[in-house]
Amino acid sequence: MTERKRLLWIDIAKALAICWVVYFHFFRTVFEHYEFPPNDWHNIAAATMSILRTIWWQVSGLGFHAVGAFIILSGLTLMQSTMRRAESGQVGWGKWYFDRFVRLYPMYWVAHLVYLLSPFVARLEPVDERIILSLLGLRFINIEMNFMYLNAAWWYFSMLIQFYLLFPLLFLAARKLGPVVFLLGACAIGFFTRHLMLNVYPQHGLWILGGFAICRLPEFALGMALGMWHTRWTSRVERLLLRGPGFIAGLILYPFALKTYSNGIAYVFADFATGACCFLAIVGVAGLIAMIQTPAKLFALIGTYSYGLYLIHQPYVIWLGLKIRPQSIGAFLITFVITLAVLSAWGMILEKSTNAFVNKLLRTKTRSPAAKMSI
User: Fold this and answer.
1) pLDDT digits (tens, 9 = 90+) for 228-266
2) At what angle do helices 66-87 and 270-289 cross, to 10 degrees?
3) Measured between alpha carbons, how far apart are the two ends of the chain, in Å?
4) To the nearest 5 percent, what fractions of the chain are helix, strand and coil?
5) How far apart are CA 146 and CA 153, in angstroms?
6) 244: helix, coil or strand?
7) Phi, psi of 5 (to 5 degrees)
8) Which residues of 85-114 are buried (b: 16+ CB within 10 A; e: fewer)?
9) How far is residue 145 CA from its own chain's centroid?
10) Does pTM top 0.90 for this prediction?
């Protein structure tokens, strides 16, 4: 596959992951107190509807697993982009960090501004001094009060900046050890840390969720290893991920991954197992979508600007969900599609505008010394 097609399926996978997260947050809000109508097993049609409704309910409740898929995708894309920089010369870690800062923080700050000014968002907490730590991304400080503050989805940003801080060490280790040994070592460190924080010296669950990024290192390292394997054996990896085997494996393994929620010992592996299965399922679907031109372009566009949608969506869907409940399943699904389209467009506008403004500002600062010299 060409580089363009490779990027296409990755963007489509990001779109599917963020759409699944948005759906989950909307679903949880609308159906928080939902009660199924009594099952009617006296005729085939009613029994079939009851079974389909139960399956829909169970599958909808798995939407938070897309976060694990996103962590894997983040590790994959970051590893590949950094490998390209390394192959063209020195990575230049100072510039690497600056590029990451420019990519992440301005839009993150814009999302705070949108939250404060928009009339259509759920404001479940007061705006107080905690917003300073939120703006800095340091939501793990006093984690119980700050990690989910204002917009609960922003906890992911706090975890992401930790991974970016550690990434030079992870990158050098992956290059030196190779993908297999690196992945095994990262999993050992991550699982051991989770075991300590879950079973030996129990800590608040928010630390395991991502407050301490090492607890999610296995998923991130899996993405990095996949990035290395994809670079070496592009056709083979894409055939496994995009042409069916990975998708089927994800569906077969998913029930076993769900068993890891059964007790504290098994839960050590829960986020990795469910995230990996969700990743395989999402990427498998992305491979199918990539073969159909119009849907591929649409989902790739959403995936390209998935960061903006991630940052702004949750207060909106909570606000709307609280307004419209109770809601029938059919009406909910229609409302979700419309809401997703509107929020995707809004997030895209915000992200493109923010990036354009930041790029223009940086170009102006770069040109100013030369302008002074010419006077």
Assistant:
1) 999 999 999 999 999 999 999 999 999 999 999 998 899
2) 70
3) 51
4) 80, 0, 20
5) 12
6) coil
7) -65, -40
8) eeeeeebeeeebeeebeeebbbbbebbbeb
9) 23
10) yes
